[in-house]
Specification:
This protein is of the alpha/beta class. The protein has 2 helices and 8 strands, in the order ααββββββββ. The protein is rod-shaped and about 115 Å long.
């Protein structure tokens, strides 16, 4: 009987040893595959051509960065409040649409100068009262300075300068 128990213990020991060794090889094999995958991803990333001139444009000490024009968005906002137009003066490139938004508690009527004919920048005229919370938009296509005013209160003025 004792010999039979020793045989069973040895068989169990060998079985456990096989499971442990097999697990080790399985684990190390999985780690190797992951390492190889990371290495190949790294190789792919470093094998891509670099274009330093695109990511690091050459600097020119003779150019002031503030002198370099930037593209303005194609839409701008001017709010109308009890204090008038904000901003009161705006410079935009041709083709920009300006949205006049009434953020006041009373109506406003944005229009081009000169009051009451609105002919300096034809078409820039809401032709109605823009109620609180409403807006009016106008696309500026001609390079010029357009005086603006509130037709309901002509002393409220501003200007929009349109550049090419």
């Amino acid at each position: 009987m004792e010999q039979n128990n020793n045989s069973k213990g040895i068989i169990w020991g060998i079985g456990i040893l096989i499971v442990l060794v097999g697990g080790y090889f399985l684990y190390s094999s999985e780690s190797s595959r992951q390492s190889a995958g990371e290495a190949s991803q790294s190789a792919v990333q470093t094998s891509q051509p670099e274009f330093p001139e695109a990511s690091n444009p050459p600097s020119n000490p003779n150019i002031n960065p503030s002198d370099v024009p930037t593209l303005a968005p194609k839409n701008q906002e001017v709010t109308m409040t009890v204090d008038g137009f904000s901003p009161a003066s705006l410079t935009i490139p041709s083709g920009t649409t300006v949205l006049f938004i009434n953020k006041d508690t009373v109506g406003h009527w944005p229009a081009s100068g000169v009051h009451p004919t609105h002919q300096v920048c034809p078409g820039l005229d809401a032709l109605r009262i823009v109620q609180p919370g409403e807006s009016y938009s106008f696309k500026f296509s001609e390079a010029k300075t357009c005086p603006i005013h509130d037709h309901l209160n002509p002393s409220v003025k501003g200007s929009i300068t349109v550049t090419q």
